[in-house]
Amino acid sequence: MTKPAPTAKDKDLLQLLQANARAPVAELARKLGLSRTTVQDRLRRLEEQGVIAGYGLRLAKAAEAGLSAWVSVSVEARQQLAVAKALSHMQGIELLQAVSGKVDFVALVTAPTAGEMDQVLDAITLLPGVTAIETAVILSTKLDRRTLPS
């Protein structure tokens, strides 16, 4: 059975929650021109459908420590599974995604210091099957609309 697509009001509700996931239901209802009960029902339905996977915490810039970098990883043919498994167990890798294109994986790597970031990058390079990596250190975040992964 196909899940119904979120309505325009659902999308407005999701946008408000992305801006402030702690907003009281009464405030959301007022901004949407809906009753509290209707908003609560919509939230429950969106949660049950898996549209809302959870509510999370974002740290202020002052609370963020260290460095983050996107690391593109190229892998020998037929080594993707072994490399993905090794990367998934590596400390400092926050997110690992298989991608199409010139590289096989993109990883979000975090480390408290530049020296520790260098150690993680060296460890990735030394994995059997890894042919090359390219690193882009994150200088600042201009926009982040992601929700917490489920």
What name is given to the CATH topology of the largest domain? Alpha-Beta Plaits
Please give the domain count. Answer: 2
Rg calculated over all Cα atoms: 20 Å
The CATH superfamily of the largest domain is known as: Lrp/AsnC effector binding domain/regulation of amino acid metabolism (RAM) domain
| Structural class designation | alpha+beta
How much is the average pLDDT?
Answer: 88
Major sheet size, sense and barrel closure: 4 strands, antiparallel
Q: Residue share in helices?
A: 25-40%
Strand content: 15-25%
Distance between the termini: 21 Å
CATH class of the largest domain: Alpha Beta
Series of secondary-structure elements, N-terminal to C-terminal: HHHEHEEHE
- Low-pLDDT stretches are none
Strand order of the largest sheet: 2-3-1-4
Task: Enumerate how many helices there are, as a single number.
Answer: 5
Tell the overall outline.
Answer: elongated
Give the name of the CATH architecture of the largest domain: 2-Layer Sandwich
Number of strands: 4
Describe the structure.
- This protein has 5 helices and 4 strands; from the N terminus they run αααβαββαβ.
- The chain has 150 residues and is of the alpha+beta class.
- It has a 4-stranded antiparallel β-sheet with strand order 2-3-1-4.
- A hairpin with a 6-residue loop joins strand 2 and strand 3.
- The protein is elongated.
